[in-house]
């Protein structure tokens, strides 16, 4: 909308005067064209390596800027990055970070490297998506078939809720990954699980598990998930994948599957 584009232009004019600023990347609803009248303006401020290091030493990664904002209730929501941050994000960013760059628009840049990096962050190969589905299936198998069952056997209400939530999350993530969709954050899961294509009964079984955690509702959901996306992945295979993705993430320098 005109007033948000005006606020963005004012912010770019403000920061472009700083030689340590390499670019401004517009993200969020304004970049995607889904903004509301009162939406804020979300940006990544891309700075030099030296400026990024100084900000990191001060633990200053994000802030609010109201310069040039001339409409009620909004602001410039700024997150800091440098080119090394973006290169690393292309290689191993989690889904919320990748999703934040989907549809992003470079509003200002001093370097030709910025545009291709921004586009690459949210792009994943088919092989990566298939691996994610397998990882989320493994999460579902362990949380639904092991931890949740133990929760009932031990009459452990915390473990029951924990396992059910993680099973529901993993099943939803598998469905979303199968549709090659990035997961912007847990607050979007309830909507996304309804938006992506799924097997008959999947959403109803997912809702039942969330509302009534039990071995019965867990088994109903995992049965549908296995028939739909499991590809014959056995529980033993899932155990090894789960250990690799969770317990060995610290050793492998990877992100645990829950945070892909």
Considering the chains and any ligands shown, give keywords for the structure.
about 260 residues, alpha+beta, 5-stranded mixed sheet, elongated
Summarize this structure briefly.
The protein is built from 13 helices and five strands. It is α+β, with helices and mostly antiparallel strands and 260 residues long. The chain has a five-stranded mixed sheet with strand order 3-4-2-1-5, sandwiched between helices.
List unreliable stretches of 5+ residues.
none
State the end-to-end CA separation.
33 Å
Q: Which series of helices and strands comes N to C?
A: HEHEHEEHHEHHHHHHHH
Q: Looking at the structure, what is the overall shape?
A: elongated
Q: If you average the pLDDT, what whole number results?
A: 94
Q: Number of DSSP helices?
A: 13
Mind summarizing the main beta sheet? 5 strands, mixed
Q: Order of strands side by side in the largest beta sheet?
A: 3-4-2-1-5
User: Please, what is the oligomeric state?
Assistant: single chain
Helix content: 55-70%
Using DSSP, what is the number of strands?
A: 5
Structural class: alpha+beta
Structural Rg: 21 Å
Q: Which strand-content bin applies to the residues?
A: 5-15%
């Amino acid at each position: 909308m005109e007033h948000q584009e005006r606020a963005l232009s004012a912010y770019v004019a403000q920061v472009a005067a700083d030689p340590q600023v390499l670019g401004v990347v517009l993200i969020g609803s304004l970049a995607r064209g889904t903004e509301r009248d009162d939406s804020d303006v979300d940006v990544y401020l891309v700075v030099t390596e030296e400026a990024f290091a100084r900000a990191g030493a001060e633990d200053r990664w994000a802030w609010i800027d109201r310069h040039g904002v001339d409409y009620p209730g909004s602001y410039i929501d700024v997150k800091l990055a440098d080119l090394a941050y973006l290169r690393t994000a292309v290689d191993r960013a989690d889904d919320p970070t990748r999703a934040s760059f989907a549809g992003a628009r470079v509003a200002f840049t001093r370097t030709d490297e910025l545009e291709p990096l921004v586009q690459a962050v949210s792009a994943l190969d088919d092989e990566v998506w298939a691996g994610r589905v397998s990882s989320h299936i493994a999460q579902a198998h362990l949380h639904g078939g092991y931890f949740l069952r133990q929760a009932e056997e031990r009459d452990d209400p915390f473990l029951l809720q924990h396992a059910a939530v993680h099973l529901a999350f993993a099943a939803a993530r598998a469905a979303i990954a199968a549709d090659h969709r990035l997961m912007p954050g847990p607050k979007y899961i309830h909507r996304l699980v309804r938006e992506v294509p799924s097997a008959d009964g999947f959403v109803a079984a997912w809702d039942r598990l969330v509302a009534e955690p039990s071995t019965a509702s867990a088994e109903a959901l995992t049965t549908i998930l296995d028939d739909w996306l499991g590809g014959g992945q056995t529980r033993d295979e899932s155990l090894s994948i789960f250990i690799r993705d969770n317990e060995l993430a610290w050793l492998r320098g990877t992100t645990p599957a829950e945070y892909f």
